[in-house]
Design brief:
It is a single chain. The protein is α/β, with parallel strands linked by helices. It is about 50% helix and about 10% strand. The protein has ten helices and six strands. The strands form two sheets. It has a four-stranded parallel β-sheet with strand order 3-2-4-5, sandwiched between helices. The protein has a two-stranded antiparallel ribbon with strand order 1-6. Strand 4, helix 3 and strand 5 form a beta-alpha-beta unit.
């Protein structure tokens, strides 16, 4: 599977799942219109765009374009690419009826269409992070070994680390992993986690 350097911004978790079936990338959800009132999430997306670049990949309906417009105005123009899925009419498998405009969203167009949209937008396709940089990525196993997931007190430790790193508290563990890999080399992350642990003891 090809790796995309930029962080891909989508509307929701079904869109994220669809993108991750097409490419290996850090994918962040806006939670639909939630991005309009979530200053922390917007600040995080801005930070990720500055660090890695961002590709906005929202649905082709009016709601998707409203979200895209909001992000476009809030992010550094030179660090953002815009990917558009084609207008395909129908309904997503999980839904009982088509959307208001009758178009499939990111979740419904399929991997080939997502890949084509990212290529048209100018996304940077590269070898997997580990082979490209020679450094392993931060993994779920690292979070577990550091007591940041899967054990008693892990949530508190994770929140303390997120505060230290200036990351939103409501970031789910899987999204946290994407963000950490987008912003930090593994050694830097381990050093930050060690300092946080020292401060707590």
């Amino acid at each position: 599977m090809e790796h995309v350097r930029e962080v891909i911004i989508v509307e929701g978790r079904y869109d994220k799942n669809a993108v991750l079936q097409a490419v290996d990338a850090a994918v962040i959800e806006t939670n639909g219109f939630g991005i309009f009132s979530d200053a922390e999430k917007l600040a995080l997306i801005r930070r990720l765009a500055q660090a890695r670049g961002a590709v906005i990949l929202t649905d082709g309906d009016s709601a998707g374009f409203l979200i895209r417009g909001h992000l476009k105005g809030a992010l550094p123009k030179e660090r953002v690419l815009h990917a558009y899925v084609p207008d395909v009419y129908g309904k997503e498998k999980r839904k009982s009826a088509p959307s208001k405009e009758g178009k499939l969203g990111v979740e419904g167009v399929g991997s080939k269409a997502i890949l084509a949209a990212l290529r048209r937008a100018g996304a940077t396709f590269e070898e997997a992070e580990q082979t490209k940089t020679g450094a392993p990525p931060i993994t779920k196993a690292d979070l577990f070994a550091l007591g940041l997931s899967g054990c008693e007190g892990s949530r508190e430790k994770r929140l303390a680390l997120q505060r230290r790193l200036g990351l939103p508290e409501r970031l789910p563990p899987n999204s946290l992993l994407d963000v950490l890999n987008a912003l930090y080399a593994r050694d830097d992350f381990l050093a930050q986690a060690a300092r946080t642990e020292e401060e707590q003891t």
